[in-house]
Amino acid sequence: MVKSLVGELVKRDTRFRTGFILMIIIVFMSILSFFSPVDPYSTYYAPVNRPPSLKYWLGTDSRGQDVFWMMTFALKNSIVFGLIAAAVSRLIALLFGTISGYIGGKTDSVLMIINDSFITLPVLLVIILIGMVFRRLSFFPLAIVMGLLGWPWDSRLFRSQILSLKERKLTYTARFSGMSTFSIIFKIYFPHLVPVFLSTFINNMIWSLGLEVTLSVLGLTNLQLPTIGTTIYWANQHQALILGVWWWLAAPIAGAIILFTALYLLSVSINEYVDPRIRYQQGSF
């Protein structure tokens, strides 16, 4: 299902192809971190504040680190962070939305009350408060917290999809054929939810990565672990622009722009594929 969806979008949508190519570049950079000759936690193994050259492709920073190799670690960690946060939030959203939409009644009402309670939370302020209380959240707990707070809007989307599918003939046919509820959800409904799942997964990655960068720049995360946000934090702390070490700040900003652009293009393309009204207007039916 996913393979056919990606194949169709690659063929017909230029934006998806562009985003896909950009993501390949980002993933390739991330894979290079496994072949890095340097330890990401080491400092002053290279001359400080050297501009980009053949030896140091993206220059070195004021901490004596090779910016190129640090960026490979930063991109890898940021992608892993986004994947963890998005996976946790998708599982919760899918669980809440499916149970609420399929069972309905009082169960639906109770779950939607819980759902709406999470929607009203000021997520950024809550995470900042948690970060201040625990004195900088480490990588994995922060990703889990993001996942636990990033699901309610999409839970309603999954619920609406289930409510629509429940009233179609395929559901009545499955019930009359003796299929169990579990089989109906995973064999009949889930293939219809895959495009929505992928679209919201990417959107949630964008959201969680944006918050991670914000929290890291504020100094509320594990600053020793290289990510896009922590790289920007250290560049600001050492006043990179004032010292003329522009490449130190330019590298993570460029990486963030490429990553967010790739995810955005993929998300927009999948969103249009999911929305039948847009496909009808474009003559895709």
SSE layout and pairing:
Elements: H1 2-12, H2 14-32, H3 67-103, H4 105-119, H5 123-133, H6 139-149, H7 152-166, H8 169-176, H9 181-217, H10 228-237, H11 240-243, H12 246-274, H13 276-281
Helix pairs in contact: 1-2, 2-3, 2-12, 3-4, 3-6, 3-7, 3-9, 3-10, 3-12, 4-7, 7-9, 9-10, 9-12, 10-12
Structure, briefly:
The chain has 285 residues and is mostly helical. The protein has helices at 2-12, 14-32, 67-103, 105-119, 123-133, 139-149, 152-166, 169-176, 181-217, 228-237, 240-243, 246-274, 276-281. The chain has a domain at 77-256: Orthogonal Bundle (MetI-like fold).
Walk me through what this model shows.
The protein has about 280 residues and is mostly helical. It has a domain at about 75-255: MetI-like (MetI-like fold). It has 13 helices and no strands. Helix 4 packs antiparallel against helix 7. The model has no long low-confidence stretch (mean pLDDT about 85).
Primary descriptors:
mainly alpha; MetI-like fold; single chain; 285 residues
Overall 3D shape: elongated
Query: What would the average pLDDT be, to the nearest integer?
Result: 87
CATH class of the domain at 77-256: Mainly Alpha
Major sheet description: none
Strand fraction: under 5%
* Fourth-level CATH superfamily of the domain at 77-256: MetI-like
Helix content: over 70%
| H/I helix tally | 13
Main structural class: mainly alpha
Q: Can you tell me the CATH architecture of the domain at 77-256?
A: Orthogonal Bundle
Low-confidence stretches: none
The ordered H/E elements are HHHHHHHHHHHHH
The rounded distance between the terminal residues' Cα atoms is 18 Å
CATH topology of the domain at 77-256: MetI-like fold
- Counting DSSP E segments of at least 2 residues, the number of strands comes to 0
| Rounded radius of gyration (Å) | 22 Å
